[in-house]
Write a structure and sequence with these properties.
Blueprint: H1 5-77, E1 78-81, E2 84-88, E3 94-99, E4 107-108, E5 115-118, E6 126-130, H2 134-137
Antiparallel strand pairs: 1-2, 2-3, 4-5, 5-6
The structure holds zinc ion.
Zinc ion binds next to loops.
Length: 141
């Protein structure tokens, strides 16, 4: 059975209005969704900036603490004498092996007339203390 033209026209017009309404709702939904995503993205950007600043502050503080720890550690465990470090033993005496002031690695002199050099190849520190002057450089207890 074929609908009459007026009914078909009403049905068609109603259908077009329904589709337009759905499209408008979809556009509105999309706009709301996009706005929500923009808001959340902005919040994340602000959060990243906050964490970035906090991280930079922590890195600075950590660097200072490492420097302080290194300074305290050296003063508690080593004594400097004539451009090298000597390790303090538990009994208050000192090791007779020079240590590098830069990396705390053992140092050696290949003969009495040569200066002590750091054994760490990556460091390369060379002291002014020569092999023959070791005994005079040892700290007194
Ligand atoms: Zn060294």
């Amino acid at each position: 059975m074929t609908p009459d033209p007026v009914t078909a026209m009403k049905f068609g017009t109603g259908l077009i209005l329904a589709v337009k309404s759905l499209l408008a709702a979809k556009d509105s939904y999309d706009k709301q969704h996009i706005d929500l995503l923009r808001t959340k993205t902005q919040m994340l950007v602000e959060l990243v900036e906050t964490y970035k600043e906090e991280n930079e502050n922590l890195i600075t503080e950590n660097t200072k603490l490492h420097q302080e720890l290194s300074r305290v550690s050296v003063s508690e465990h080593f004594v400097e004498s004539r451009t090298v470090l000597f390790k303090r033993n538990v009994d208050g005496t000192y090791s007779n092996i020079p240590h590098c002031p830069t990396c705390k690695t053992h140092m050696s002199s290949i003969n009495p007339s040569m200066p002590y050099r750091c054994n760490n190849k990556d460091c390369g520190y060379v002291s002014s203390l020569k092999g023959r002057d070791l005994k005079s450089a040892l700290p007194s207890e």
